[in-house]
Amino acid sequence: MASLDFEQEKANFNTYYESNHKQFIAAKDAYLGMIRTLIRQSDVGEVTKIEGRVKDKEECVKKFQRKYQGKLDADEQPYEIKDFISDLIGIRVVCLYEDEVPAVSALLQRHYRILNVTDKTSAVESTEDSFGYKGLHMDLALDPEAPCLAKNLPPLEISFEVQIRSLIQDAWSRLDHKIKYKKSIPVDLKRRINVLSALFELADREFKEIRNATSDLMQQATDTQISERVDGVLEVPGPTASPGSKTVNAFNFVPIAGHFFRDFSFEDQKVDDFVQDILEQDSTFQKADLHRCLNENLKVVRQYSEHVIAENPNRTFSAYTLIRHCLYLYDQERFERILTRRNSERFSLWLRGSRSAQAATAAEGTPQSV
């Protein structure tokens, strides 16, 4: 029963906490599983981390004393500590970019009952001289309209807090918690912390802008590949044609290679490394050269791969391996090092044998003069 006796209520809370601790952990694990499933099945961007915890009982009591006890005592309003701890179970969702935070929030709001929302980003940005971590905090409870979500929950139904942050916001929050006595530090030290906070905010913004610029470049390369003839007969005018845009790069490589290898997934990091390998051997190699190289040589290279695999069933030829052989065949002087020495020797030997066989076949088909 609620009272104004803090020591008694603290003892009651400790009893409540200890007797239900296993159920708290089970509820935390259930909520984690549900949210992970929701995010995995939804298009909310790149979520890098989803983790949870059960708040320590001493932390719960300290938070109650700091935020609520003074006012409750002043108003002579009886209380039970557990009624004021909304984050006993906490879930943290870390997005890669800051503009993905609202998407995750909207997803959770569609599947849970919202008890409270604290937008720490707006709170910090609305104050000139304030510093602190950003993010969105939501107090949630199960929505009776979505019973399918609760089928794996333990009998104890309890509200929980979800913190949604970007990767940069999460990094700053961890550092921010290490800064002691923030309200009473000297002005010069507070200014240095504000500068650091601004740098984190700038990094968050720049990561997002770089992502957008990268997506735009990829889209431009794809649109250009569709609209122009890659042999250079038709050029695409306008602002998208920047200096050096004809040189092969990670953005225009994918649509060209993807045209020839439709079932192969070109991963960003591998594409970047592979294109760099090409440019290290020929810094002027253009996207038209790449298209011509594949168009003229892929058929022969595929025949070679079939020959190798027939003799060695355990061998595989990825798209990158096929492209390397095409580049070697396209210009053996420029791309001498695109294959290992052993592979280039095997390929050259096969080419000589193949050409000899073709010449012999052609000679047999030539009519003899009388």
UniProtKB/TrEMBL annotation:
InterPro entries on file: NT_sf, RelA_SpoT
Pfam families to which the protein is assigned, alphabetical: RelA_SpoT
Residue stretches spanning the membrane: none
Signal peptide: none
Residue ranges constituting the RelA/SpoT domain according to the UniProt record: 52-187
Name of the featured protein: (P)ppGpp synthetase
